[in-house]
Amino acid sequence: MRRRKQKNCSPGHPQTQGGVERFHQTQKRYLAARTLPELQKQLDQLREHYNENRPHRARDRSTPANASSPSPTTPPSPSSTSTPAT
After folding, report:
1. 3-state class of 20 per DSSP?
2. Which of 10-19, 39-48, 51-60 has the lowest mean pLDDT?
3. End-to-end distance of the chain based on CA atoms, in angstroms?
4. InterPro entries of this UniProt entry (predicted)?
5. What is the DSSP letter of 10?
6. Are 27 and 46 contacting, i.e. CB atoms less than 8 angstroms apart?
7. How do residues 27-49 score in pLDDT, each as one tens digit?
8. Contact by Cβ (8 Å): 44, 36
9. What is the structure's pLDDT at 37?
10. Angstrom distance (rounded) from CA 78 to CA 66
11. Other Cβ atoms closer than 10 A to 22
12. Which helix (H) or strand (E) holds 46?
């Protein structure tokens, strides 16, 4: 298992962890729920939009869903599917 090193920084300090702070800013602007079920629905919608619809600069304008979807598998060659002679 690969270990990750924890790095702490000052909250609200975008120079240290700009991407995370930017996402939190977007989340705060987007969410306007008054109840927990409303909040859950809005979080689900935001997650779907963020991962399925919104193009990401770091992913060459593709969505994370497109970038992480499995590539089509290559079918086996005819010689590997033939049954052995008995």
Report:
1. helix
2. 10-19
3. 45
4. Integrase_cat-core, RNaseH-like_sf, RNaseH_sf
5. -
6. yes
7. 888 888 889 999 999 999 988 88
8. no
9. 94
10. 30
11. 11
12. helix 36-48
